[in-house]
């Protein structure tokens, strides 16, 4: 996926989508309806990964349902998530999260979105993100329709 940001001379060449779980693609451990369909639409364009501390214990089942790789992070989770992002290439990655342990990867990723949904979001995560949205569906729809991202981030 390629996104050119007019007026900023920035060209994003994105290959990976890294998703947090709790408060991002799930609420109380349950997958937000519609996430599966949007991720299916993105799979031909992006490698998709699920990273989570797995607070609710449903991470493996959610990843299996979505057909994406699952990586459980330890405590502190932020460092594990950062290690993962560095391994796959931060400069080629989109990160979507909401928690304090997402703040480092939100700041480092080529493109990042914070979800301010039912479980809220960390103020530090909000400050680190490029784009803030109210739901995971909105975030994924931005990726399906990248002209919306250009409209938001252009100079």
Secondary structure layout plus pairing:
Blueprint (H helix, E strand, L loop, with lengths): L1 E4 L4 E4 L2 E4 L6 E2 L2 E2 L3 H8 L4 E6 L6 H8 L3 E3 L4 H12 L4 E5 L5 H6 L2 E5 L7 H6 L2 E3 L2 H9 L2 H7 L2
Parallel strand pairs: 3-6, 3-8, 6-7, 8-9, 9-10
Antiparallel strand pairs: 1-2, 4-5
Helix pairs in contact: 1-6
Describe the structure.
It is a single chain. Helix 1 runs parallel beside helix 6. With 155 residues, the protein is of the alpha/beta class. The protein contains seven helices and ten strands. The model has no long low-confidence stretch (mean pLDDT 95). The strands form three sheets. A six-stranded parallel sheet has the order 7-6-3-8-9-10, with helices on both faces.
């Amino acid at each position: 996926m390629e996104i050119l940001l007019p007026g900023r001379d920035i060209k994003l060449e994105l290959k990976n989508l890294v998703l947090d779980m709790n408060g991002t693609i799930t609420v109380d451990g349950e997958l937000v309806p519609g996430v599966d369909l949007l991720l299916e639409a993105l799979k031909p364009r992006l490698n998709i990964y699920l990273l989570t501390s797995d607070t609710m214990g449903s991470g493996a089942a959610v990843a299996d349902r979505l057909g994406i790789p699952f990586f459980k992070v330890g405590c502190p989770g932020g460092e594990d998530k950062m290690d993962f992002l560095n391994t796959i290439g931060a400069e080629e990655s989109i990160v979507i999260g909401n928690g304090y342990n997402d703040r480092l990867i939100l700041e480092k990723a080529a493109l990042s979105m914070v979800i301010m949904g039912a479980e809220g979001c960390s103020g530090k995560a909000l400050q680190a993100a490029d784009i803030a949205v109210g739901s995971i569906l909105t975030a994924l729809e931005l990726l399906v329709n990248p002209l919306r991202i250009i409209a938001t981030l252009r100079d």
